[in-house]
Amino acid sequence: xxxxxxxxxxxxxxxxxxxxxxxxxxxxxxxxxxxxxxxxxxxxxxxxxxxxxxxxxxxxxxxxxxxxxxxxxxxxxxxxxxxxxxxxxxxxxxxxxxxxxxxxxxxxxxxxxxxxxxxxxxxxxxxxxxxxxxxxxxxxxxxxxxxxxxxxxxxxxxxxxxxxxxxxxxxxxxxxxxx
Length: 179
What we know:
By secondary structure, this protein is mostly beta strands. The chain is built from no helices and 13 strands. It has 2 domains: 1-85, no CATH class; 91-178, Sandwich (Jelly Rolls), CATH 2.60.120. It has strands at residues 2-4, 18-20, 75-78, 81-84, 91-93, 98-100, 107-108, 114-121, 128-131, 143-145, 149-154, 162-165, 170-178. It is elongated.
């Protein structure tokens, strides 16, 4: 194992075990740049500041993060499951909560092109029913969801989703994931 204590200009050009002992740049800031190598960290790794990874990274064990995590790209793998990361400019959120009627047929959500919509029945509300133009909801018919719950629907246009409240005038909110 080679121990590096140099302050700048350290190059590791072949597979070797290296211990880096607090290198600093001219400003006194710790700085390590590794390129074209596989890096294995045994034990713990603490990083203060930023980390930029181009290429891939694999982690076995637990990763703890405090602060904001930014991911650009399409997906993150979590325990073999895909987690889609959606840019905030692809989301439309209801500004004010919608007032849902108790009249048969209910109300339609906005007419926009989408991937999916998440509808939330507010806390304290009675049951609401979700349906469509072909299965028009009314009190006691449709997909029932209680107050304080949400339902997600993959739909190309939320205007095809209709909501009716058991008690007219209750509130619901939505988030549309734009196509």
